[in-house]
Specification:
By secondary structure, this protein is mainly alpha-helical. The protein is built from 14 helices and three strands. The chain is globular, with a radius of gyration of 18 Å.
Length: 260
């Protein structure tokens, strides 16, 4: 995903880069060694990020400094969180499974791992609006041009595009549990899951947990443009599109305790 050269596309989904059920079932450090052999360039790029920052602003150096791992789920205030805590974009949208490759077992087990999640109905609308209005970069604009322009509005997009298969093809729409659960598991593999709905409170807890001043507020970066950001997401759904999202993001809804 986004690390070094991998941030070229924010829409390519590669949560299981090894492509092997056998390797993914190996113990942590054995899997990490296997990854270093099978994907040497990727592994080397991950390790370089622990000591350097790319021109685009990605770096994992602060993870080692603060003894933490932040899993950035798209459209859940992750850019603001990264800028505030790390001063950069950290690792981008790497999954917790990929962080098991980046860090050794002792590091992974010892670091404070955290993430934030968002109501799936709200997050879907935010991602759609964000991309429809230009996104963050050229990759976003190209994806929107290819995939969104064929639909007249959000209702048509949900009705005709959103399915359990299609959301697996784009990082912005990928179910949130895919970032936070290890392969073949529905157990969340981070120590703390904050919520977008209680962002200020949960962000203050994270800062305190990392030994940082809890009185620093969260700045807003990469915010979804108006008017969707100011409206109630429920106003954008019909009974039919509401049910589509309920089915497609069923695991997220159950795992993180959301309802419409």
């Amino acid at each position: 995903m986004q690390a070094g050269q991998a941030q070229r596309s924010q829409h390519k989904v590669d949560a299981d880069p090894l492509g092997s059920r056998l390797i993914n079932r190996l113990p942590h450090d054995a899997r990490r060694r296997a990854s270093a052999l099978v994907n040497r360039r990727r592994f080397r790029r991950f390790q370089e990020l622990r000591h350097t920052e790319t021109p685009e602003g990605y770096s994992l150096a602060q993870f080692d400094e603060l003894k933490c791992i932040f899993v950035h789920v798209p459209k859940v205030a992750g850019v603001s969180i990264c800028r505030s805590l790390f001063g950069n974009l950290a690792g981008g949208h790497l999954t917790i499974a990929l962080y098991r490759i980046v860090f050794s077992k002792d590091e992974f087990d010892g670091y404070f791992k955290f993430a934030f999640v968002r109501n799936p109905w709200d997050r879907l609308l935010s991602a759609y609006t964000f991309l429809a209005q230009g996104g963050m970069n050229r990759s976003d604009r190209a994806w929107a041009e290819e995939n969104l322009t064929r639909y007249g509005d959000f209702e048509e997009f949900v009705s005709r595009w959103v399915s359990r298969d299609t959301v697996e093809t784009s990082l912005h729409f990928l179910p949130q549990h895919r970032f936070l659960c290890l392969p073949f598991s529905r157990t969340v593999a981070v120590n703390f899951v904050g919520s977008y709905e209680n962002l200020d409170r949960d962000f203050a807890y994270v800062r305190e947990r990392l030994g940082l001043s809890s009185g620093v507020g969260l700045p807003h970066h990469n915010k979804t443009p108006a008017p969707a950001a100011r409206s109630d997401y429920r106003d954008h759904y019909t009974a039919a599109t509401r049910r589509i999202v309920e089915d497609v993001y069923r695991e997220d809804i159950e795992l993180f305790g959301y309802s419409f």
